[in-house]
C-alpha cells in the first residue's frame, strides 16, 4: 500500500516543473519583445546623436587647420574686423572664436559680435528642423553666453530662389521659422527668453550675389548677433553685416566679370 502511494506521489510531482518552465519561457519572451521594441524605435535617434557627437568632437583639429588657412587667405583684411574695441566684448569674442570653422564665422564690430552660420550646417534644404549634429555647436554657444547680460538677436536669411509649400508659402516664412528654431534651442540651453529677439528677412540683405550656388549658399544663413545695447545700429540695419563680407563680394564680382568677358568673346 505504501509503495503504491509513493509511486503515485512521484508520478504527480514529476510534472510540476512544467508550470515553472512555462512561466519562465513567457517572461523571457516578454523581455525580448520589450528589448526589440526599444531598439527598433530609438536606433535612428541614437545613430543621429552618435554621428553628431563624433562630428562635434572631431572638429577641434579641423578648426585649427581651417583657421590657419583662413589667416593666410584673409591676411590684412582680418585686421579690419578683429582688434581691440571699447565695448567690453573682446573677451566674449575671444571665447567665441573657439567655435569658428567653415560653417561658423565671427564678425566683430564696435558694439556687437555677430556669428554668421551657414544654413546648410543647421537645416536640410527647405526645412526648419534642426540637424542633430548642429545641437552640439549651439549648446556650446549657449554655454558661453547664457550667464552674460547680453541681448541675443537671431536673424534668418535665404537665397533668392522662391519657395512655395503649404508650410512655407515664401522665403519670409522659411527664414523666420529657422530663426525661431535656433532661438528656441538657445532658450532651451539656458538663455532667458527675454534676452532673445527673433526675426526673418527672407532673401533681403544678401551678403553676396545669387548668380552661383556658392553665392546662394552664403546667403542662406542664420546670423546670431550679441550686443550689450538693444539700440545698436546693426539691429536696425542688417545691411551693416556687409562690412565683414565686402572682400568676398568683391571677389565674386571679379569672377563674374571674367565669366561674362569669356562669354562675350565666344559670341
TrEMBL record:
Matching CDD domains: OmpA_C-like
Quote the InterPro entries the UniProt record gives: Bact_OuterMem_StrucFunc (IPR050330), MotB-like_N_dom (IPR025713), OmpA-like (IPR006665), OmpA-like_sf (IPR036737)
List, as start-end ranges, the regions of compositional bias called Polar residues: 60-70
Among PROSITE patterns, the record links this protein to: OMPA_2
Against Pfam families, the record matches this protein to: MotB_plug, OmpA
Q: Does the keyword Nucleotide-binding apply?
A: no
Its protein name is Flagellar motor protein MotB
* Similarity-based family: Belongs to the MotB family.
Q: Where are the transmembrane segments?
A: 21-38
Say which species the protein is native to: Legionella pneumophila
Residue spans of biased composition, Basic and acidic residues class: 71-86
Print the keywords alphabetically. Answer: Cell membrane, Cell projection, Cilium, Flagellum, Membrane, Transmembrane, Transmembrane helix
> Region Disordered: what ranges?
60-86
What membrane topology does the annotation report for this chain? Single-pass membrane protein
* NCBIfam families recorded: PRK09038.1
Show the GO cellular component annotation of the record.
plasma membrane
The record places domain OmpA-like at 110-230
- The answer, when asked if Transmembrane is one of the entry's keywords, is yes
The primary site where this protein sits is membrane
Give compartment(s).
Cell membrane
Amino acid at each position: 500500500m505504501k509503495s503504491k502511494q509513493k509511486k503515485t506521489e512521484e508520478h504527480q510531482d514529476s510534472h510540476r516543473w512544467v508550470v515553472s518552465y512555462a512561466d519562465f519561457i513567457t517572461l523571457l519572451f516578454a523581455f525580448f519583445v520589450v528589448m526589440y521594441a526599444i531598439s527598433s524605435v530609438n536606433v535612428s535617434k541614437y545613430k543621429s546623436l552618435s554621428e553628431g557627437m563624433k562630428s562635434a568632437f572631431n572638429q577641434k583639429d579641423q578648426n585649427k587647420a581651417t583657421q590657419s588657412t583662413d589667416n593666410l587667405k584673409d591676411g590684412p583684411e582680418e585686421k579690419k574686423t578683429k582688434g581691440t574695441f571699447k565695448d567690453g566684448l573682446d573677451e566674449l569674442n575671444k571665447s567665441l572664436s573657439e567655435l569658428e570653422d567653415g560653417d561658423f564665422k565671427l564678425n566683430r564690430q564696435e558694439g556687437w559680435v555677430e556669428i554668421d552660420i551657414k544654413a546648410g550646417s543647421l537645416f536640410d534644404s527647405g526645412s526648419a528642423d534642426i540637424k542633430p549634429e548642429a545641437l552640439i555647436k549651439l549648446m556650446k554657444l549657449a554655454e558661453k553666453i547664457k550667464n552674460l547680460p547680453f541681448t541675443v538677436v537671431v536673424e534668418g536669411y535665404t537665397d533668392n530662389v522662391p519657395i512655395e509649400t503649404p508650410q512655407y508659402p515664401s522665403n519670409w516664412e522659411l527664414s523666420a521659422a529657422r530663426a525661431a528654431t535656433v532661438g528656441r534651442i538657445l532658450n532651451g540651453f539656458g538663455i532667458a527668453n527675454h534676452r532673445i529677439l527673433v526675426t526673418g528677412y527672407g532673401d533681403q540683405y544678401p551678403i553676396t550675389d545669387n548668380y552661383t550656388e556658392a553665392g546662394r549658399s552664403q546667403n542662406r544663413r542664420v546670423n546670431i548677433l550679441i550686443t550689450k545695447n538693444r539700440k545698436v545700429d546693426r539691429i536696425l540695419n542688417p545691411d551693416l553685416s556687409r562690412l565683414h563680407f565686402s572682400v568676398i563680394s568683391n571677389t565674386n564680382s571679379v569672377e563674374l566679370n571674367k565669366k561674362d568677358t569669356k562669354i562675350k568673346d565666344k559670341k
